[in-house]
Design a protein that fits this description.
By secondary structure, the protein is mostly beta strands. It has helices spanning 3-10, 13-19, and strands at residues 23-26, 36-43, 48-56, 63-66, 72-77, 80-83, 85-89, 92-100, 107-113, 121-127, 134-136, 142-144, 150-154, 163-169, 175-177, 185-188, 204-215, 226-241. The chain is globular and about 65 Å long.
Length: 242
């Protein structure tokens, strides 16, 4: 699944409220020393790595940077490279592309090149963590809120990279958990999955998203810092009942 499609599918009401307050600035007006970079590589198990880079005017800013024609972002892994192209939604600007392969240890470099006399940032890097597949719960399995525990299970456990498990649905309050160690499973107790306001008697689909992440490094030329990360993500949809 492409990065732009993932963004469209995961936007919540709160995210939309945030995006409505966003603004943009041209890179011609911002030095690299004034930029904050958020860079990620995402694989959903389909054999490709979706690379995304977002530049902002400072770490806490909602002002996103649009690249002028003299500036460009490119992702490279071995002999494979792709120029990242612009995607914009409600003022949020990111640059995205896809690389072949998503194996553990796959190294990706994302380079910002700028026209002189400004400074380029060519060495932001991340590597992909190990793949995994979800082995439980079963697709569309029914779980009663307040009673049934949900055991989320995956293969290829025991890795050092951190795992997170998130549950979202229209009839529940979101749940997010991060196991201290990767044992290949995580249990959500019946009491942890609560109905959202005015949905106590309703059933709904609940999407369980499991992620394994590995931190990389951003080029020091980004004067406002940033982050780079490789992510393996898998999901399953179950049914939550009152």
């Amino acid at each position: 699944m492409r990065t732009a499609e993932l963004m469209k599918k995961t936007l919540t009401f709160a995210a939309l409220a945030f995006l409505s307050a966003c603004s943009t600035a041209s890179s011609t007006d911002i030095k690299t020393s004034g930029m904050h970079a958020s860079i990620s590589g995402l694989s959903d198990g389909t054999g490709t790595t979706a690379v995304s880079a977002t530049l902002r005017v400072g770490a806490q800013s909602t002002t996103f940077i649009e690249l002028a024609s003299t500036d460009a972002l490119k992702a490279t892994s071995g002999a494979d490279s792709v120029k990242l192209t612009k995607f914009e939604l409600l003022g949020l600007v990111s640059y995205n592309g896809s690389l072949t392969g998503d194996e553990e240890g796959k190294s990706v470099t994302v380079a910002l090149t700028r026209a002189s006399p400004d400074v380029s940032a060519p060495t932001s890097t991340f590597t992909m963590p190990a793949k995994f597949q979800l082995t439980g719960p079963a697709v569309q399995a029914n779980f009663k809120r307040g009673a049934d525990a949900i055991e989320v299970k995956w293969d290829n456990g025991g890795k050092a990279d951190p795992m997170t498990v998130d549950l979202t649905g229209t009839c529940i309050d979101p749940v997010s958990k991060a196991p201290a160690t990767d044992t290949g499973s995580l249990v959500i107790s019946g009491s942890e999955l609560k109905a959202s306001k005015d949905n106590e008697t309703k059933s709904c689909n609940v999407t369980i998203v499991v992620r394994r992440t590995r931190a990389g490094t951003v080029d020091s030329a980004y004067g406002q810092g940033g982050l780079a990360v490789g992510i393996q993500t898998r999901q399953v949809i179950i049914n939550s009942t009152p």
